[in-house]
Model the fold of this input.
Amino acid sequence: MTDRVGRLQYVAKRKKLLMKARLRKEDSMLTVYNTLTRQKETFKPLEEGRVKMYVCGPTVYNYIHIGNARSAIAFDTIRRYLEYRGYQVDYVSNFTDVDDKMIKAANAENITVPELADRYITAFKEDTKALNIEPATLNPRATDNIEEIVAFIQDLIAKDYAYAVDGDVYYRARKFKAYGHLAGQDLDQLEQGASEHTATEETLRKEDPIDFALWKAEKGNEIAWESPWGKGRPGWHIECSVMSTKYLGDTIDIHGGGQDLEFPHHENEIAQSEAKTGQTFVNYWLHNGFVTVGDDDQKMSKSLGNFVMVHDLIQEVNPQALRFLMSSTQYRRPIRYSQSLLAEAQTNLDRLKTTLDNLAFRQPTAEPGEDQIVMDKAAELEAAFVTAMDDDFNVQNGLTQLYELAKLSNQYLEQTTVQADTLTSLATRLTRLLAIFGVVFKADQLLDTEVESLIEERQAARAAKDFAKSDAIRDQLKNQGIILEDTPQGMRWRRA
Done:
């Protein structure tokens, strides 16, 4: 009778715990910090279950540096979490494949701008693949959208938001009443700053110093396209307005990019897009923090010689460790890149992999069934992870719950008897949460024939109680980077 009562109490408690965990996940409300309003807001996409997301991509005149990588990783992590939460994400990230930097770099190498772009777009895709960044739904190139850019500018001229001068076309910034709002900029200060940093010749052509270029007239033999204003090329800002609205619609859910893009790039995107469409351009503006280098938090600078190119770095370090380091800090916070923090990230990855390896190793000898107490606790930890991440993608607090899940797994593995369904559940949850951070562990490759033979020889030596030979073989394998572990469940191996 007592056992029956105890069982009923346990079942009731289990139901309560599961209901609590389920409610936490379902009721959890995703909030994001909107740069435009300077506050956290409840995230409600335009279309239920679907997110339209645009992230400014690189100007492809060189390999990406770790600042570029931080932005790509931050928004890939956000995208992965949204997908984990059940959203379909239409993720568009452009390539700026024509601008002043592109022209200068191509001329320096005596190649064409398209040749330069092709080289570094290929490198970008290789480097981001190494960092396990999911490919965008679409990577449009500015030069593939010249016709649409020209039509967009024509519309702005027709609405009196733009004007042509000697083959250039400028946007009337002051005419857009909300100009400066995103970055919190005062128009009078902007006017003074523009006057100080704009060439006198260009200033004289403008109606107002704060006006910015939509189209630039051809100079010399530089790359150019035909337009109603003569041969030329688009300005930088107009490219993103055209590509985001073309592929995602007049209003999008999320627009992301680095803090350095708030002004003037994103400010100008808003002015251009809303002047043309008459619609709200973006509902949620998200901006990632900067990267500092070294333990003294230096800003990355070519003059300081601390400009870190990802293309070179991933040849020297584990790309997954770099990815984990970059994704383990909340996207709005500044992040430090240093050797010590990279080593710490690698150590944490190694521990997590060992946990998953151990869960897999115990599976063949596990008993059927599940441990409900452990299963319920794991469900609670995942629900707590969701609650943490729903607070503006707070990855630090999310990782705390992930590490607790790994700890729970390790404690369970210490038991003499384990159950197969519990092992599977723990491994599945860990794998699912790690994937949000771009972490996917590859199974160790099979040992080569020589090493397999040595392991068999060692097992035979142990059976014959020739422990000196057994130890010698173990040390030999260790020198080859193979660590043998004798456990109550049998011998296992891992790479050092």
Q: What stands out?
A: Residues 9-28+360-436 form a domain with the Four Helix Bundle (Hemerythrin (Met), subunit A) fold (CATH 1.20.120).
